[in-house]
């Protein structure tokens, strides 16, 4: 079958999120053909280029949503107007289209403003009336963009800003939204235009998303928006996979950011309403862990549509370490990851000071590099300064130079040539984060057969499942006590490490991930309503054979599918295109034998 893979800032870009997961999915299911529909997030991401794509990727359609220039968008211009027409709403649409645009934007913005002060504290409950207004406005704008184009220009117009201002000042809006000023109106209108750019893409054609059998969005939000329109315009079933929680990122937007509180509140509500509609319309939702699943249920996802599929990881690269009998450095703690504030290395260093009081010979090896930017370098310098303060270089006497028990190292040197050897360097692997989604380093440590001590954040408890110790975050004393308990009990470390490796091999491998989606694709196509032949056009007899080109009944003599109706609404599924010729050949062969 043909899968339309939808990404936002991800595959096929070399620096994209979920890049490895998407690549393994495409390469691991050779029986299917994939078309990529990718949204890019920045000019830098596009300049980094793409990963090398396998042959089974049929087409790649991209759209940059970070630029303000109309020419960079694959947007259909309004009929009879050039692509770069004037920016005023009155010049881009006629009278009837202006009324359509105003009505739809008023519905959408009014629904967002009415719930602009809601957030995760409300339990994610979405007002039914507001959700209906939001979806009516959303799909109305999508149909206007399909019929007449010009939506990006209209959304940047003064008319849109006036609609936003009127909605923010309407009775019943929350205090935060009601306090918005003119700069806030302008900022929200600009952000709304960017968020709705997928409505104006030229992907919604018979030879685009109309020709795929399943739309698979690799994340929620902007990536799933084309999938919503593909379902609405063509009836294509939508599958949504989320390994993280995009909504949580919107709610936790830093207060010191460029946007004011009213704009952040409005955008959070917009994305909440969009997520709710995506979950309602999706045929199936595959959260990457239970933590993500709880957020999806909070925003309206039906439990019957949810199927947890853990992200698959490559276990073979850690096989040599996991199969060894040695348990690594018996007096060494190892931490591996990106060095940033969310990892809370400060708490880890304070915890290690407590460990040293109980076990003076213990060492801590920190493997990682700071995240890009000044913040990462500043945090690394802060951690090194604290380590130097807590652990002065140890020396035998006043005339010798000693070593610190804490080292900051990078992987790739002669002593630690690869990631697996970094995990092998310690007897206990520690995770000290205050914020996590699905911590990959924890699964890698389990593949290596290492006992772990982790903070209870994100999906940690679900990953560990009793094969490691879990403590509250921001609690150096509890972290230290757990580390000491494992350092003093080598038999327990060995037991936990073996159990962790067995659990990881059972649940978190690439093979189990591919097997899950292999079955999911077949289930979705098998349960989806028939898609008629007039949507996809005649089959190309010279083209390659399609997996579902022949319906099963064609192989049974004398049992034929019904003839297509003479009218334009031919009752033939898109995946059965070309079946008439096969069936006719089968019937002719049977007559000759008779």
Can you give keywords for this protein?
six-stranded parallel β-sheet; alpha/beta; globular; 594 residues
What is the end-to-end distance?
35 Å
State the helical fraction.
40-55%
Biggest sheet, strands in spatial order? 3-2-1-4-5-6
Biggest beta sheet attributes: 6 strands, parallel
Describe the structure.
This protein is an alpha/beta fold and 594 residues long. Strand 8, helix 16 (374-390) and strand 9 form a beta-alpha-beta unit. Mean pLDDT is 82; it is low at 69-87, 395-400, 532-537 and 563-594. The protein has helices at 19-28, 43-47, 89-92, 95-114, 128-148, 151-155, 158-168, 175-178, 182-195, 225-234, 246-251, 261-281, 290-298, 319-323, 345-358, 374-390, 419-424, 440-447, 460-464, 476-487, 490-507, 510-527, 533-536, 579-593, and strands spanning 2-8, 33-40, 57-64, 214-217, 238-242, 284-287, 332-336, 363-367, 406-409, 428-431, 451-455, 469-471. It starts with a strand and ends with a helix. The radius of gyration is 28 Å and the shape is globular. A six-stranded parallel β-sheet has the order 3-2-1-4-5-6. Helix 4 packs antiparallel against helix 5, helix 4 runs parallel beside helix 7 and helix 15 (345-358) runs parallel beside helix 16.
């Amino acid at each position: 079958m043909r899968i339309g893979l939808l990404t936002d800032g991800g595959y096929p870009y070399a620096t994209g999120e979920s890049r490895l997961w998407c690549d393994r999915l495409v390469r691991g299911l050779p029986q299917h053909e994939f078309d990529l529909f990718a949204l890019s997030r920045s000019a830098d991401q596009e300049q980094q280029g793409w990963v090398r794509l396998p042959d089974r990727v049929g087409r790649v359609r991209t759209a940059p949503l970070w630029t303000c220039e109309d020419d960079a968008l694959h947007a259909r211009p309004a009929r009879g107007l050039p692509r770069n027409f004037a920016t005023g709403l009155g010049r881009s649409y006629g009278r009837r289209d202006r009324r359509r645009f105003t009505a739809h934007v008023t519905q959408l913005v009014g629904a967002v403003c009415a719930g602009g002060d809601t957030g995760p504290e409300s339990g994610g409950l979405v007002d039914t009336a507001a959700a209906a207004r939001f979806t009516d406005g959303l799909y109305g704008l999508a149909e206007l963009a399909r019929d007449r184009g010009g939506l990006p220009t209209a959304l940047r117009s003064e008319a849109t800003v006036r609609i936003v201002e009127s909605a923010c000042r309407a009775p019943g809006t929350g205090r935060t939204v009601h306090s918005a000023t003119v700069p806030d109106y302008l900022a929200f209108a600009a952000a709304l235009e960017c968020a709705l750019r997928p409505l104006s893409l030229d992907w919604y054609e018979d030879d685009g998303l109309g020709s795929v059998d399943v739309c698979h969005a690799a994340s929620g939000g902007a990536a799933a928006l084309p999938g919503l329109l593909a379902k609405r315009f063509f009836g294509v079933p939508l599958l949504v996979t989320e390994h993280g929680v995009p909504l949580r990122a919107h709610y936790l937007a830093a207060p010191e950011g460029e946007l004011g509180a009213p704009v952040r509140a409005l955008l959070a509500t917009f994305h909440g309403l969009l997520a709710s509609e995506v979950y309602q319309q999706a045929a199936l939702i595959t959260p990457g862990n239970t933590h993500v699943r709880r957020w999806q249920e909070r925003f309206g996802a039906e439990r019957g549509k949810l199927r947890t599929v853990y992200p698959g990881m490559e276990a073979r690269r850690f096989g040599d370490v996991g199969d060894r009998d040695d348990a690594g450095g018996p007096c060494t703690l190892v931490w591996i990851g990106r060095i940033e504030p969310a990892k809370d290395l400060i708490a880890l260093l304070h915890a290690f000071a407590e460990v040293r009081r109980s076990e003076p010979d213990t060492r801590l090896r920190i493997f990682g590099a700071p995240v890009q930017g000044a913040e990462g370098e500043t945090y690394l310098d802060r951690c090194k300064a604290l380590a130097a303060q807590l652990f002065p270089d140890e020396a035998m006497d006043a005339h010798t130079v000693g070593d610190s028990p804490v080292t900051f190292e990078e992987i790739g040197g002669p002593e630690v040539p690869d990631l697996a050897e970094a995990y092998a360097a310690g007897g206990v692997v520690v995770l000290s984060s205050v914020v996590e989604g699905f911590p990959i380093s924890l699964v890698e440590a389990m593949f290596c057969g290492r006992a772990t001590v982790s903070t209870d954040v994100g999906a940690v408890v679900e990953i560990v499942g009793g094969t490691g110790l879990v403590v509250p975050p921001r609690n150096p004393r509890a972290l230290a006590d757990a580390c000491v308990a494992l350092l003093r009990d080598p038999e327990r470390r060995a037991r936990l490490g073996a159990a962790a490796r067995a659990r990881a091999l059972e649940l978190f491998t690439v093979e189990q991930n591919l097997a899950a989606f292999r079955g999911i694709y077949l289930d979705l196509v098998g349960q989806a309503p028939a898609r008629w032949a007039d949507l996809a056009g005649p089959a190309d007899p010279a083209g390659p054979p399609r997996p579902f080109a022949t319906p099963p009944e064609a192989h049974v003599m004398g049992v034929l599918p019904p003839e297509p109706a003479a009218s334009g609404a031919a009752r033939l599924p898109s995946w059965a295109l070309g079946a008439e010729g096969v069936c006719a050949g089968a019937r002719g062969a049977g007559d000759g034998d008779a």
